[in-house]
Design a protein that fits this description.
Elements: E1 2-11, H1 17-33, E2 38-40, H2 54-58, E3 60-61, H3 65-77, E4 80-89, E5 92-100, E6 106-110, E7 130-133, E8 136-142, H4 149-154, E9 161-165, E10 175-177, E11 183-184, H5 191-194, H6 200-203, H7 206-215, E12 219-225, E13 227-230, H8 235-243, E14 260-264, E15 270-272, E16 280-281, E17 288-295, H9 314-335
Parallel strand pairs: 1-2, 1-12, 2-4, 3-4, 8-9, 9-12
Antiparallel strand pairs: 1-17, 4-5, 5-6, 7-8, 10-11, 10-14, 12-15, 13-14, 15-16
């Protein structure tokens, strides 16, 4: 079975809901005009990406404005539509990847691994989702989830292709602007963090290609683009942790709220066709839609050989999955209501 799919990228700068939905619909229209059966929007396509209290205010109920828009848009254009949003449910907030059919059927996957500071705004949920659809058996992942081989392994032999919605600021090359006008990067914070520097393109490029090739399936990757400039959640705790590697930073504790992180997005939405076929990639800058054709097997393939080990430094996992979530989980508990 051959399937036309569309990956998209949107500027990650936060903007009002209706503006972002209008821009998302323009990308859906492009995909439909090129014959696509499914359009994959980026992570938090309705919101944009920043570490601010606005995230709590704009988290929606499962039948809120964004989900209604997704249902209406999928029906109007007779296309499957996917993308993530922050959803409130049973007193918690989740980063939910929703897949909607033209007939209104839905499947969802909640992000398993909030990246670092994201833990201030939603919680993770373990497990996978295999969407059984007329477009094949679809596995779903969100952004930083792709760095975790165990999640890919859970999809082995169960899926025809992988759907990945993301919006990753390249924190490995981020600039931290201090109140006194100085700027700090990971390269300034000692040997441990130097190893993490400039790893973002690998995580969301070669790493995805290798894991999807091991599964034996194509992958469709949507992303953000542009640049984010944002404050930090729990800025004093974050500064204390960075100061353990560069003690001179501690003198800024009283002004920690003024620290801003500036980071480029890992742009370039992609369609990974498998180990034997080249990937298609859009330019890294500018909102766009990339449509291509993938080939689906009659039955889900079984991986062969040893699963590739990601070439991601252990410090990236420690800071992203342990240290920063520990610093920000309390922020989430205090503000989620």
């Amino acid at each position: 079975m051959r399937l036309k799919v569309t990956a998209t990228q949107m500027d990650a700068a936060p903007a009002p809901l209706e503006e972002r939905l209008r821009r998302a619909e323009a990308l859906v229209t492009r995909g439909v005009q090129e014959g696509s059966r499914i359009v994959v929007l980026p992570e938090l396509f309705n919101l944009g990406y920043a570490y601010t209290p606005e995230n709590y205010r704009r988290a929606e109920m499962a039948d809120g404005r964004t989900v209604t828009w997704m249902r209406e848009t999928a029906a109007r254009y007779e296309v499957y539509l996917a993308g993530t949003l922050l959803v409130r449910e049973q007193g918690e907030i989740f980063n939910r990847l929703l897949l909607v059919s033209p007939a209104g059927q839905t499947w969802h996957y909640d992000k398993t691994y909030p990246w670092g500071w994201e833990r201030a705004y939603f919680r993770g949920v373990p497990g996978i989702t295999v969407a059984e659809t007329p477009l094949g058996r679809i596995g779903m992942l969100i952004c930083w989830d792709v760095a975790h081989p165990a999640l890919w392994r859970q999809y082995a032999g169960k899926v025809d292709w992988m759907l990945i919605s993301s919006c990753p600021p390249d924190v490995s090359t981020a600039r931290y602007h201090l109140p006194d006008g100085h700027t700090v990067t990971l390269q300034d914070l000692g040997a441990l963090l130097k190893r993490v520097y400039n790893t973002g393109q690998y995580v969301f490029g070669e790493n995805i290609r290798a894991q999807a090739a091991w599964l034996g399936v194509p992958a469709v990757f949507s992303t953000g683009c542009g640049q984010v400039e944002t404050p930090l959640p729990n800025p004093r705790g974050s500064l204390l942790s960075l100061g353990s590697l560069r003690p001179g930073l501690w003198r800024h504790l009283r002004q920690a709220d003024a620290i801003r992180m500036q980071a480029d997005l890992v742009g370039g939405c992609r369609i990974f066709r498998g180990a034997e076929s080249p990937l298609e990639a859009a330019p890294e800058e500018g909102e766009t839609a990339l449509t291509g054709e993938i080939h689906l097997p009659e039955t889900p393939p079984t991986p062969k050989g040893v699963q590739p080990r990601p070439g991601i430094p252990w410090m990236a996992y420690f800071s992203s999955d342990t240290l920063l979530p520990a610093l920000t989980a309390g922020v989430y508990r205090r503000n989620k209501a």
